[in-house]
């Protein structure tokens, strides 16, 4: 049996292009005892994967050139040699970008596919949801009446951060890159949303949206938006440093105003994190997110691209701001 | 009765000079019920006071032009209208730079002058000691065997940070601005000390001194030393952001490499703070510092200037790196 696979053809310099990807047909080995054959249903494309395409050591090991790209996948068990996962089970795991994968049953996690659309386990009820959950609730700890700013607010993580902050009674301001996204954030319940691409003075727009200053900042983006936030922090502000998508494709070390003086005079806490820092608390996070989703307090939003051959395009679209909410590719 | 007083004559642009200070003779009012007349014995000069000389809002209110400069003072009660403070008591408080002050007894704190030299209540057993104590032990929380870097290590706070880190079993590296300071840090028990003024490549020197990477950074200085530290942080590093003396006299907003990407990929926590954030825990801190001092585990080091008229010069000397340990002025 054969499968299509997508390999890393070369490492990008700056913004990745279609040249970085190569499609190949490979043979799928027969599953042995304890293994399952998985048919891919949804593939997750995520900004953090850009980091793995470079050779530099980061918080996740680099992809190897010539090897399949590995990421979040929702799949269905189509052949099973494990009591744990009967045929028909829906699972999520970190797997090669292939139409079919053979893996140990214990390397993937079954998801309750009756409780939510399967793709949500790559978004609202998966890694991005947990990222929002721990970053906002553990690091920022917003209190009712406080002001929370989220950059990249219409992205997979940002849109959940904003909804979680509203559940906790905060005033929520999001930044995003199009009028459509801004409109969607308002629909989701954000108090204010700023189109950073069309707003001439971000600092002024933030000051108008956050007249009482900023208590919490969930940063997915970095750069000029972050600089403007630093100037408007309240005493004892908390910053969850989750991503820096504005710098991921930079070819030179980014330079900007030094933030330390601003963080010092406001006694601000800034905490860098990756969701795996909270691995031991994932069950708590999934349980709480699932509960809020069931109660209608959290909405998922996805940009779904169709077709295995469209995976690279969907990934490249992340850096053009093409997605609102979680970007996933529907494969089967 | 008259006293000399030192007023803020004008706000500095960049590095302050003697022109910013004006000496005047003023009348001292007679103390009334509940008040004491204090004779100044030691005046504290501290880098944070530079911030108060500017009009910009910071974590402490600006000094007013034409009004006396206010700072840490150790004084003796020479006339008392309060049962709380008999004549001869030694007190510490935030008071105008004057030879004599009249104040409410409850506005100052009596110190146990039999337990340590009186000036130590402005240093090791006072505000700088508490700054080191809470910043290192509450924010950085060094573990035995971890590596701690302290910038401005020979300053009033830095030298205590290093000693506290050694008490906790850490490997300690300090940066300072002269060979004499470096030699003194070694005497104090620092494992390594780097003269940042004569070392051509700070990053290389740090890497040699910290072969296992940096777990904790206590930053008094900012700028290039801090940039080099950010590049060598271990996963889950902790940074106590205490001061930025390298930037206090800057006339333009300082610019440098953006740190966020480095803090993100190491899941580093950076916490700005001022000692007053820990006001409710000062008794704990003073008790512990006094105990370690009595046990011979902590040494004070001071640069003592003599004479009330030398206060401005001692203050200006902070920005030329003239002091090793706490800079104080002996007045009487």
From TrEMBL, chains A, B:
It comes from the Bacteria. CDD domains: PGDH. Keywords: Oxidoreductase. Residues 17-329 form the Enoyl reductase (ER) domain. InterPro entries: ADH-like_C, ADH_N_2, ER, GroES-like_sf, MDR_fam, NAD(P)-bd_dom_sf. One of its GO terms (molecular function) is oxidoreductase activity, acting on the CH-CH group of donors, NAD or NADP as acceptor. PANTHER family: PROSTAGLANDIN REDUCTASE (PTHR43205), PROSTAGLANDIN REDUCTASE 1 (PTHR43205:SF7). This is NADP-dependent oxidoreductase. It comes from Hymenobacter telluris.
């Amino acid at each position: 049996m054969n499968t299509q696979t997508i390999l890393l053809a070369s490492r990008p310099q700056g913004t990745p292009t279609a040249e970085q990807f190569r499609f190949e047909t490979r043979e799928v080995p027969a599953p042995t005892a304890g293994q399952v054959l998985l048919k891919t249903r949804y593939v997750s494309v995520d900004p953090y994967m850009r980091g793995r395409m470079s050779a530099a050591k980061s918080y996740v090991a680099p992809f190897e050139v010539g090897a399949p790209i590995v990421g979040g996948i929702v799949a269905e068990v189509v052949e099973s040699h494990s009591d744990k996962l009967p045929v028909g089970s829906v699972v999520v795991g970190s797997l090669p970008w292939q139409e079919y994968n053979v893996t140990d049953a214990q390397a993937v996690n079954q998801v309750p596919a009756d409780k939510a659309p399967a793709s949500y386990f790559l978004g609202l009820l998966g890694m991005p949801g947990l990222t929002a959950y721990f970053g906002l609730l553990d690091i920022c700890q917003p209190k009712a009446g406080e002001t929370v700013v989220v950059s990249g607010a219409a992205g997979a993580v940002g849109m959940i951060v904003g909804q979680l902050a509203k559940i906790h009674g905060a005033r929520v301001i999001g930044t995003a890159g199009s009028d459509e996204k801004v409109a969607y954030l308002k629909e989701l319940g954000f108090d204010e949303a700023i189109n950073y691409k069309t707003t001439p003075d971000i600092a002024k727009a933030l000051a108008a949206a956050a007249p009482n200053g900023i208590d919490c900042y969930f940063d997915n983006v970095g750069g000029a938006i972050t600089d403007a936030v630093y100037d408007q922090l309240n005493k004892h502000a908390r910053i969850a440093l989750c991503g820096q998508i504005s710098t991921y494709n930079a070819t030179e070390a980014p330079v900007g105003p030094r933030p330390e003086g601003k963080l010092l005079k406001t006694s601000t806490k800034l905490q860098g994190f990756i969701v795996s820092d909270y691995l031991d608390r994932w069950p708590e996070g999934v349980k709480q997110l699932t509960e809020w989703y069931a109660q209608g307090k959290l909405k998922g939003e996805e940009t779904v691209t169709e077709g295995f051959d469209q995976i690279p395009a969907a990934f490249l679209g992340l850096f053009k701001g093409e997605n609102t909410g979680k970007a996933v590719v529907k494969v089967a």
